[in-house]
Specification:
The protein has 122 residues and is an all-alpha fold. The protein has five helices and no strands.
Length: 122
């Protein structure tokens, strides 16, 4: 994981035309290493994805773009999940009573959930 952080935090190096030959050679080697690492980590991530996600994220040019896209999707899913939990939380505290039938109480809960705009699966 530490190695991918290096790729995510650093941008590709640009070689100046004014740089000395020794410096250009050194930077060229660093660029080659960076490109190879980017390629490897991009494919490591893509290989762990489902086919649909792989096809969607494969056109991205770098591991950084894939990483940020996946992070954005994860945050969106978490936001939706938190909202659903918040919407359903009042029903976690619902207490059944003995003076009414279980069926009528469960229909009442279902009706409240549906009237709040949520859907129940059969």
């Amino acid at each position: 994981m530490r190695k991918i952080v290096h790729i995510l935090k650093t941008d590709i190096i640009v070689v100046s035309k004014k740089a000395k030959k020794d410096e250009r050679d050194k930077l060229t080697i660093e660029i080659a290493i960076w490109n190879e690492s980017d390629y490897l980590y991009k494919n490591f991530i893509l290989n762990e994805l489902s086919v649909d996600l792989y096809d969607y994220h494969n056109p991205y040019k770098s591991v950084k773009l894939i990483w940020y896209a996946l992070e954005k999707e994860r945050n969106m899913i978490l936001r939706k999940l938190r909202q659903k939990i918040y919407d359903v939380s009042p029903y976690f505290k619902y207490q059944m009573t003995n003076n009414k039938s279980v069926e009528s109480q469960s229909y009442r809960i279902a009706h409240e959930i549906i009237s709040d705009g949520m859907f129940l699966e059969s």
